[in-house]
From TrEMBL:
This is Uncharacterized protein. It comes from the Eukaryota. The keyword Nucleus applies. It comes from Graphocephala atropunctata. Residues 45-182 form the Cyclin-D1-binding protein 1-like N-terminal domain. Residues 198-289 form the Cyclin-D1-binding protein 1-like C-terminal domain. It is found in: Cytoplasm; Nucleus. GO terms for cellular component: cytoplasm; nucleus.
């Protein structure tokens, strides 16, 4: 078999798997007994084994004399074998471990397989140019493999990772808005006129200043949910895993709403849109709190705390838009058990 045909066959196999992986269409492998800790030990070893084979090929094909078709065939056979071990181990991972950790693992595997495919394709060009491209792509592949070491090992850790990411974005948004307000204040002082067309109008400035409160309460809501999950969260049962997944999904809706809200506060401000976005952000926060109110970690975010957070959300929303209906009389209707 010619060199090109051999590489094409391997590429087709990997590309087929990659398409199926992206669509979550590869058939799962069922085992009699699954142990999550054992899975991670075996999966990490398999990824390392695949990385070693890629490195071997990189050295062998890095400069003349390049390997013969027979030698390359043997190396590709070892590569495919290691790849198959890694892929099949991933297919053993059941979705019942929790959607959040499962999706994170799937994403990592997709990145590894995509990087592997790119490297194998370069073997069609055994030249100095191909070697340089292969070296760059190998670095990308190593990064994809290294990412496995930082994957959350269970659904609790995966959910905490999502919450921490959302908290980080909220912190960034608060710092960004606060800095913009300070820069506007300094520019206004230097220019000596609050009517400069490059600066906020008085109404816009007042709106942005009040908006800081809603951004802060967004951060606080996320932090309180995170604290409750840290202290009382568990992934020891399918029900708990499902609740963590729903918590992660609800948390992910916060940053897009927050970004839309803060982005609309730059001069010139479309005030109706800014107020509409404030309402959407407040609604997302209420939805997040309603989502977690009865979950297994409710001991850390009980009825009283949820009520206080809802008051903070409504108060800061109404500071921006006094015309909104006051939902506070409905607080007593919350059915949160402690």
């Amino acid at each position: 078999m010619s060199h090109d045909n051999l590489v094409d066959i391997v590429c087709e196999r990997i590309q087929f798997d990659l398409a199926k992986l992206k669509g979550n269409e590869l058939e799962k492998i069922e085992v009699d007994s699954f142990n999550l800790s054992d899975f991670w030990n075996q999966f990490e070893a398999a990824v390392q084994g695949l990385s070693n084979e890629v490195t071997k090929i990189g050295f062998a094909c890095g400069q003349p004399p390049y390997p013969t078709s027979g030698v390359l065939a043997a190396m590709l056979q070892d590569l495919v074998q290691c790849y198959s071990v890694m892929r099949d181990l991933y297919l053993v991972l059941p979705e019942e471990v929790g959607a959040t950790v499962y999706q994170a693992t799937t994403s990592a595997v997709v990145n590894i397989v995509a990087a592997l495919l790119a490297i194998v394709r370069t073997l069609l060009d055994l030249s100095e140019k191909g070697a340089k491209e292969r070296l760059t792509l190998t670095g990308t592949f190593w990064e994809a493999c290294a990412a496995v070491e930082t994957l959350p090992r269970n659904n609790l850790l995966a959910t905490l990772g999502v919450l921490e990411g959302e908290i980080g974005l909220a912190v960034d948004a608060q710092e960004e808005l606060t800095q913009t307000i300070e820069e506007d204040r300094e520019a206004t002082s230097e220019l000596g006129s609050e009517d400069n067309f490059e600066l906020w109008t008085n109404h816009e400035r007042d709106l942005a200043t009040k908006a800081v409160g809603l951004v802060k309460v967004t951060k606080v809501c996320l932090q309180k949910v995170h604290k409750a999950v840290v202290e009382h969260g568990s992934c020891s049962s399918p029900q708990n895993c499902a609740e963590l997944d729903t918590t992660a999904a609800a948390s992910r809706t916060v940053s897009p709403a927050l970004d839309d809200f803060v982005s609309e506060l730059y001069h010139p401000v479309d005030v109706p849109t800014a107020l509409e976005n404030a309402g959407k952000l407040a609604a997302v926060l209420r939805s997040l709190l309603a989502t977690v109110q009865g979950y297994h970690f409710k001991q850390g975010i009980n009825k009283d705390l949820i009520n206080k957070l809802l008051v903070f959300v409504s108060h800061n929303h109404q500071k921006l838009d006094p015309s909104v209906a006051n939902p506070l009389p409905q607080l007593n209707n919350l059915t949160v058990t402690t």
